[in-house]
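Work Package 3 (structural annotation) set out to generate three-dimensional models for the target panel prioritized at the project kickoff. During this period the team completed the workflow that converts sequence records into discrete structure tokens, so that structures can be stored uniformly alongside our sequence database. As a representative example, we reproduce one entry of 255 residues exactly as it appears in the project archive.
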Amino acid sequence: MAHDATHPKAFHHPHEGCGLPERDRVLMSFDDFCFAYEERPTLRHVSLDVYAGDSVVLMGDNGSGKSTLLKAMSGLVFAQRGSYRFDGEEVSEASMRDASFAKRLHQRVGFIFQDSDAQLFCASVEDEIAFGPRQMGLGEEEVRRRVDDVCRMIGIDELRGRAPWALSGGEKKKVAIGCILSMNPDVYCFDEPLNGLDARTRAWLLGFLHQLKDAGKTLVIATHDQSLADEVADYFVYMGDFHEYGDRPHVHINQ
């Protein structure tokens, strides 16, 4: 695939022309983005635009770069060649050293890790959900309101005083999502969200993803679960064996 190729416009902009100005706006833009861990290429020459309101599913084998692309979107790894822009502003090591810029990005892009234990570190569920809003500098009254709203919305009121490490896998996943939901970001990045969940929690999470999508949130989901991909994707992004972004002729669109 040529390095300057991008996703076919007919597939890539499912919201274009929908009459909502925010959905005709490129929110995340990668231009020839390259990244390597210890000189091992992980993302090679990725050029990709994600529009506001898109629901994108990243597909590909283990090690193809899906998780790293999510981390790049969230400002956790940076281009070693090329660039990544969020809402027109370049995200780089230099820009993320600006505390106000980093705070804005982390408020607007939420990353839900595959392993919830990597995301949870506070003494109680309530403190976990309050952590993000407090980092945003919100007053305690607003923080309490957000914690109340999130716990009610995702059905974890009874867990508020519990220690996160003592929860089940499904409960931890809900709390990890609640931590991001409390900041009300524009973009939700999910890394293998259904892994290790029981049938009831899987059903809840699928419904929640549809709620986010219906609310106009931008979703980027890395998964091997084809049923999840078919249900929520506006289009697929395939990461190939050489850590490059490639198109396939059977791109799936949910109109």
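Residues 1-10, 247-255 have pLDDT under 50 and may be disordered.
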